[in-house]
């Protein structure tokens, strides 16, 4: 079995650990792909998030799903598959969007 998008989550984990040393995170393999779980403080509340990238890269990008289980909300965004362009800030911006704007499940 091949685990998809390992480089993406290895890079996200490295960047998250460096930028947010006090917040919890962990990465787990799940059914052939990686899942990156992290917490982030938004407006005085700590929320948990789950990042998944289940599909093969398309057009040079990886489709990533960010879910906030406590809000029941998910957003999708594209991330570069080049490690030097992968940036945890993309996931953080999506997390802020979920909490501040709100999107329906699978939105």
Descriptive notes:
The protein is an alpha+beta fold and about 110 residues long. It has one domain. Helices cover about 25% and strands about 35% of the residues. It has two helices and five strands, in the order H-E-E-E-E-E-H. Strands 1-2-3-4-5 form a five-stranded antiparallel sheet, with helices on one face. The protein is globular and about 40 Å long. The model has no long low-confidence stretch (mean pLDDT about 85).
Could you give a short description of this structure?
The chain has helices at 6-19, 88-100, and strands at residues 25-30, 33-42, 45-52, 61-68, 73-80. It has 107 residues and is of the alpha+beta class. It has a five-stranded antiparallel sheet, with helices on one face.
In whole angstroms, the N-to-C terminal distance is: 30 Å
According to DSSP, the number of beta strands is: 5
Strand content: 35-45%
The residue fraction in helices comes out at 25-40%
User: Which overall shape is indicated by the principal axes computed on the Cα atoms?
Assistant: globular
Tell me the series of helices and strands, N- to C-terminal.
Answer: HEEEEEH
Q: How is the main sheet built?
A: 5 strands, antiparallel
Let me know the average pLDDT: 87
Low-confidence segments: none
Number of helices: 2
**Whole-number count of domains:** 1
Decide which structural class fits the backbone.
alpha+beta
Task: Tell me the radius of gyration.
Answer: 13 Å
**Neighbour order of strands in the largest sheet:** 1-2-3-4-5
Oligomerization state:
single chain
């Amino acid at each position: 079995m091949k685990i998809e998008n390992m480089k993406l989550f290895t890079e996200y984990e490295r960047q998250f650990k460096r930028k947010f040393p006090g917040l919890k995170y962990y990465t787990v393999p799940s059914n052939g792909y990686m899942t990156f779980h992290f917490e982030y403080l938004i407006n005085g509340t700590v929320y948990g998030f789950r990042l998944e990238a289940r599909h093969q890269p398309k057009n040079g990008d990886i489709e990533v799903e960010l879910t906030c289980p406590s809000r029941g909300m998910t957003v999708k965004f594209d991330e570069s598959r080049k490690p030097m362009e992968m940036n945890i800030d993309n996931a953080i911006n999506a997390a802020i969007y979920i909490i501040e704007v709100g999107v329906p499940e699978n939105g």
